[in-house]
Write a structure and sequence with these properties.
Elements lengths: L2 E8 L6 H6 L4 E11 L2 E9 L3 H10 L3 E9 L4 E7 L4 H9 L3 E8 L2 E8 L4 H14 L5 E7 H7 L5 H12 L11 H8 L3 H22 L13
Antiparallel strand pairs: 1-7, 1-8, 2-3, 2-6, 3-5, 4-5, 6-7
Helix pairs in contact: 6-8, 7-8
Length: 229
């Protein structure tokens, strides 16, 4: 059984603070972080911004970004794979010393809200270690909650029927193949939904599958949430 710890950390102590300073209207959401090595961290990012050219210029100039690849794009949202250029002390500590996995992060004003999965252990001890790490690095770390994964899954919505249908349609049409067998716009038109709705359903569905299968090992319920987005 794993533990989920939710906390906030100042954005300059995590990543992409220069990007957020340059493009303050951008909304960034990290759906998965992979520590390939202590000095190599790959993140998968979803972004909304009024000007994607400005956002991508800021990302490429950000000192924490080593490389940037556009994965998907639409009029109002894009997804990226990026390698962070410098190890982030907090993140590397979480990944290596405590065997933690960052499963979600989102910028909120001047802070990042992170959700981290840990192997079963003493939650209070792990939270205290994180707070001590923050104190040594002279920044604040606000623990928002600690959950067992069974409790956490019970409190979260399952994958919805529209998300399941969108993922199946995308898979069957070759959307996930290289090269793609269909564009997102074509997929949305075939399913009779807006481009934005299809993008949101695929993104949320993929995020759910990663979190449930690779992180918590749970599963969805096909009979529930049929009408939700």
């Amino acid at each position: 059984m794993a533990l989920i710890v939710e906390f906030e950390v100042p954005r300059e102590k995590f990543a992409l603070s220069e990007t957020l300073r340059s493009v303050p209207d951008a909304t960034l959401e990290v759906g998965r972080v992979v520590a390939d090595a202590p000095d190599s961290i790959t993140a998968y990012l979803w972004a909304r911004a009024p000007d994607f050219d400005a956002l991508e210029a800021a990302l490429e100039a950000d000192p924490t970004v080593r490389s940037l690849t556009v994965l998907t794009e639409s009029a109002d949202e894009r997804s990226y794979r990026m390698t962070w250029n410098e190890p982030i002390d907090l993140l590397v500590h979480v990944m290596t010393e405590q065997q933690g996995t960052v499963i979600h992060a989102a910028n909120r004003g001047g802070a990042w809200a992170l959700r981290v999965s840990f192997p079963e252990g003493d939650a209070l001890e792990q939270a205290q270690e994180l707070k001590e790490l923050a104190r040594r690095n002279e920044f604040s770390l606000d623990v928002r909650g600690i959950h067992r994964t069974d409790e956490y899954r019970g409190a979260k919505p399952e994958m919805t029927r529209p998300q399941q249908k969108a993922l199946m349609a995308a898979f069957e049409a070759g959307y996930f193949e290289v090269p793609k067998g269909v564009t997102l716009a074509e997929l949305a038109e075939a399913e009779g939904v807006s481009h934005q709705a299809m993008s949101e359903r695929i993104r949320r569905g993929v995020h759910y599958l990663i979190e449930q299968t690779l992180v918590t090992g749970g599963g969805g319920d096909d009979d529930e949430n049929e009408n939700d987005e």
